[in-house]
Specification:
By secondary structure, the chain is mainly α. The protein has four helices and no strands. Helices cover 91% and strands 0% of the residues. Helix 1 packs antiparallel against helix 4 and helix 3 runs antiparallel to helix 4.
Amino acid sequence: MEALVHVVHAVLAGAWLGGVAFTTLVVSPALKEMKWSVAERMAVRSVIGRHYARVGTANLVLLAVFAVLEGVLGGAGAVLYVEYLLIVVLFGLTAAHGAYFGRRLKELAAAEREARDPGEARERAGRRRALQRVSFGVSMANLLASAAVAALSVAAGL
């Protein structure tokens, strides 16, 4: 039973990492290449984010459950405690990204499109680009934390 829990735990961590890597390193850059307006790209990104959130949230919850279960069955050592902390960080980063950054970037892109004059459009575009840089930083932190969780999930069973 303990070996099965470990395998499921490691597979869930790998699936989580794969999803984060795919959306960060493939989907986002691909959307930048599209010849759509900024508002259209943000709208598409928002739809993708909502759909991914359903799968990603279930994956992250199951990852947390199986990490705790592995700790209960095999004795939670330092490796698992670090992983638990990183999973909590992942919940926070993911929630912040979905609840704030995605929504706010979509709003700023729409406001940029609806600006009354070029100066107002430039100002709104500048605010959007600044927030996109922060959002990218959060995505990179999520990617790094996810990679660490995947490595720790494997190490937990050694």
